[in-house]
Amino acid sequence: MSSFLEIYVALRQAFGHRHWWPAETPFEVVVGAILTQNTNWKNVEQAIANLKQAGLLEPDLLAEATLPDVQGLIRPAGYFRQKSARLKRVARWVNQRCVPGDRALGALKWEPLDVLREELLSINGIGPETADSILLYALEKPSFVVDAYTVRVLGRHCLIEPDATYEEVQEEFHRRLPPDTELFRDFHAQFVEVGKQFCRKSAPHCAECPLRTLLGEPVMEDDS
Asked: Is residue 55 within 8 Å of 73, Cβ to Cβ?
């Protein structure tokens, strides 16, 4: 069985460093992690641009903004009613844990990963993938992000059980890899790239996939 590091090296050679997550500040990453739920990044970029133009990419100002104002600004990202409420809840959490206006989230970066993850998951509307995205990309904590692309690639090559939970898949990465934030960031981004280009949900391009030589032919019984 190929190691996870071998998979990463193969993807890195194919795609190069992905330089993900694009943002000017850690708080912008937090906002993007919430907005990207159930939509594509192009829509998220437009919503973030709207918030930035309105001066609301500050945690204290976003927390104080009215829901209708936030809803109007993030409408391009879809599910704007739910996401606006989540943004305000997370902004309030940041305000409680950091000095006002701290887009760098400096105080949070000193907190233990487990404490931060528990607090994030306690916020209504924040699930494991969003929480781990915030931890990894905004707070520089080695918490691997498991998304649909990751599950699809690993599942098709029988590297995880078909019914594996989010936590079980994440534990495989934490067990097999050193707790390196930069490695986790780029590896997650590599899965996104191979999932978009080759390991698609339907009509995958297996013959050209950079993992074919390493992992062999995938099992295509489940396209979920």
From this structure: no
Given the candidates 3.60.20.10, 3.30.950.10, 1.10.1670.10, 2.60.40.10, the CATH classification of the domain at 4-18+145-215 is 1.10.1670.10
Which residues belong to CATH 1.10.1670.10 in the chain?
4-18+145-215
What would the CATH number be for the domain defined by 26-138? 1.10.340.30
- pLDDT for 223 equals 46
Percent of the chain with pLDDT over 70: 98
pTM of the model: 0.94
Q: What is the dihedral of CA 150, 153, 156, 162, to 10 degrees?
A: -10
